[in-house]
Amino acid sequence: MSFADAAQVRSAQTSVPAPREQSAAVQDAVAGLAEVERATGALYEVVAALDLPALRGPSLLPGWSRAHVVTHLARNADALVNLLTWAKTGVEHQMYPSAADRDADIAEGAARLPQLLRADLDAACQRFATAARELPPTAWEAEVVHPKSGPFLAHRVPWLRLREVWFHLVDLDGGVGFEDLPPELLERFLEDVVGQYADRADVPPVRVEAVFPDGRQRSWELTAGSATSPAVNGAAADVLAWLTGRHSGARLNGTAPTLPKWL
């Protein structure tokens, strides 16, 4: 059995059981965890195909190899376990001891051989799945704190993990792009990213218009602009790639301004 096959089996075995009656928080968490399982399966397939030269090669993130990205995904899973532990116990568990510790762990892990990278990723993913499975239903409504975006309720943790897996799966540059996202997730991620730009003085006024694969169109104002705000538009996947700094906006219609980091 391959790395990807074995890891998918273990992931499926750690699904969160669905009680007959669930609160809205539990329903949201369970839905997010189901998406995480699917995305993790896609991640395993891509990582399984990366040999040593590919892992040492550049990712789409400046300064990071693909091995850096894989290690970051492992450490992010562990960081989110810390938040789930916080939600479960009520005792503060920050995602990372410090930004410097986070960076050092990623740099150390990126030097590992492929089989060790894969084992580390799989073990971290399983720790996250187990922590989620064992979380009491009421704990999904507990407040935890993200180091950048601040307090939020624990039922959003699976969706944070999903965003990390998908975005960095794209960064691995292994044949998966934002255009491969399920349409409903593409829209959800766009809303999420646009929300990160809200009420920020360093964001230029611009109207963003996205066309989804089913032909629907949506638009957002990145800041509290006016009807005269310049507009950029294009395929939803290309809009998301621009908003998250994965490309310059050259594939969009209109003059795409330079944006600050979204997160």
What can you tell me about this protein's structure?
- With 263 residues, this protein is mainly alpha-helical.
- Helices cover 51% and strands 9% of the residues.
- It has a 3-stranded mixed sheet.
- Helix 2 (24-48) packs parallel to helix 7 and helix 8 (183-197) runs parallel beside helix 9.
- The N and C termini lie far apart (38 Å).
- 37% of the residues are buried.
- The model has no long low-confidence stretch (mean pLDDT 90).
- Residues 1-22 are annotated as: Disordered.
- InterPro entries: DinB/YfiT-like, Maleyloyr_isom, MDMPI_C-term_domain, MDMPI_metal-binding, SCP2_sterol-bd_dom_sf.
Reconstruct the topology from this structure.
Blueprint: H1 3-13, H2 24-48, H3 52-56, H4 66-89, H5 99-110, H6 114-133, E1 143-146, E2 150-153, H7 157-171, H8 183-197, E3 207-211, E4 217-221, E5 231-235, H9 236-243
Parallel strand pairs: 3-5
Antiparallel strand pairs: 1-2, 3-4
Record field, number of beta strands: 5
Provide the CATH architecture of the largest domain.
Up-down Bundle
N-to-C CA distance: 38 Å
- Report the major sheet: 3 strands, mixed
- What is the beta-strand fraction? 5-15%
Instruction: Quickly name the level 1 CATH class of the largest domain.
Output: Mainly Alpha
How helical, in percent, are the residues?
40-55%
Domain module tally: 2
> Strands across the major sheet, in which order?
4-3-5
Output the CATH topology of the largest domain. Four Helix Bundle (Hemerythrin (Met), subunit A)
The CATH superfamily of the largest domain turns out to be dinb family like domain
Mean pLDDT: 90
The helix-and-strand class reads mainly alpha
Total of helices: 9
InterPro entries: DinB/YfiT-like (IPR034660), Maleyloyr_isom (IPR017517), MDMPI_C-term_domain (IPR010872), MDMPI_metal-binding (IPR024344), SCP2_sterol-bd_dom_sf (IPR036527)
Keywords: Isomerase, Pyruvate
Organism: Saccharothrix carnea
Protein name: Maleylpyruvate isomerase
